[in-house]
Amino acid sequence: GGSYPQKNAEILSSQYGINLFLAGLLLTFAWAVHAVGISKSHLLSYLITLMLIQLLWMLWYLCRSCTQRRLIRDKDTHAGARWLKCGITLFAVITLILDSFKIGYYIDFSNCLSATEGIFPVTHAVHTIIQVYFLWCHAKDIIQSFKTLERFGVIHSVFTNLLLWTNGVLTESKHQLNEHKERLITLGFGNITIVLDDHAPQCNCTTTTLCSIFSQGIYYLYPFNIEYHILASTMLYVLWKNIGRKVEHHQQHKTPFKFHGITVGMIFGLIVLISTIAIVVVYLIQIGRSKIKSELALTMFYLHAICVLALMCTTGIVALLIYRLEDRSLDNSKNPARKLDGELLVGTAAGSWLLSWGSILAIICAQAHPKYTWYNLPYSILVIIEKYIQNLFIIESIHREQEKVNDDIKTLRIVTVSRGSTLSLSPSYKEIYNGRATRDGGEVPCLFRGTVCGRETDGGGAGAKEETSQENSSATHSASDFSFYSRNSVTSNKRRILKNIAAFLFLCNLSLWIPPAFGCRPEYDNGLEEIVFGFEPWIIVVNLAMPFSIFYRMHSAASLFEVNCKT
Question: Which UniProt keywords apply (predicted)?
Answer without folding.
Answer: Cell membrane, Hydrogen ion transport, Ion channel, Ion transport, Membrane, Transmembrane, Transmembrane helix, Transport
